[in-house]
Amino acid sequence: MGRLKDKRALITGGTTGIGFETARQFLAEGARVAVTGANPATLDAARQELGKEVLVVASDAGNAAGQATLAKTIAEAYGQLDILFVNAGIVEMRPLDKWDEAAFDRSFGINFKGPFFLIQALLPIFANPASIVLNTSVNAHIGMPNTTVYGASKAALLSLARTLSGELTPRGIRVNAISPGPISTPLYGKLGLPQEQLKTVADSILGQVPVGRFGNPAEIAKAVVFFASDEAAFAVGSELLIDGGMTTL
């Protein structure tokens, strides 16, 4: 406890799943926390469950222009920012011939373009030192069918862990990435598939995980806490795969 005492943190997509659990653990470690989300219902639930000390902000992660507004809100609330966890994202699975430009742009907008311009907008208020943690995916590494666009968008985000490290380390900003395998979160429920088909997809994915189960959000959140803390001061441009062994196959 206390590893993030008095640090000011922003978690995108922090009202459900991995982001929500990370917010809880950040609070337990003494951080001041802001979370974003786009769903009014989960925004309200986060306000109630995380407590009034948490800043809950409605923000569209895929709106590049809107990232400056979010950065302004954080600047007004905290002055400076010590930790950014880029967590908001979507997964859309389609065969190659079923993709259209609008769906392609939506996936890249939320998973890469929005985060890129958020980091840019936050540059003036990052403290020195500061930590950026990017939530990428095992799909940046494996050739899972129907994940062409999702995997590419996460690979692009993962690339920032290295390229931004080269650019931002002199400013005292560390950039690292976590790449989860399948995690039990509401993310899969947003695929828009019938329950029976969703179970088929889940069973297929589970068959590729050597440990024989999905991960849970707390297992990812603990890794984020490490990268965000001073314990990881020598971790720069690193990636931590937390995938139940998927990449060992």
Describe the protein in words.
The chain is α/β, with parallel strands linked by helices. The protein has helices spanning 17-28, 40-50, 66-78, 101-122, 148-168, 195-206, 217-228, and strands at 8-11, 32-37, 55-58, 81-86, 126-135, 173-180, 239-242. Strand 5, helix 5 and strand 6 (173-180) form a beta-alpha-beta unit. Helix 1 (17-28) packs across helix 7. The radius of gyration is 17 Å and the shape is globular.
What brief labels describe this structure?
249 residues; alpha/beta; seven-stranded parallel β-sheet
How would you sum up this structure in a few lines?
This protein is an alpha/beta fold and about 250 residues long. It is built from seven helices and seven strands; from the N terminus they run βαβαβαβαβαβααβ. A seven-stranded parallel β-sheet has the order 3-2-1-4-5-6-7, with helices on both faces.
Helix content: 40-55%
Task: Work out the strand percent.
Answer: 15-25%
Query: CA-to-CA gap between the ends?
Result: 36 Å
Spatial order of the strands forming the largest sheet: 3-2-1-4-5-6-7
Structural class: alpha/beta
Overall number of strands: 7
What's the overall average pLDDT, rounded?
94
Low-confidence stretches: none
How many helical elements?
7
Q: What is the chain-wise order of helices and strands?
A: EHEHEHEHEHEHHE
Tell me the Rg in angstroms: 17 Å
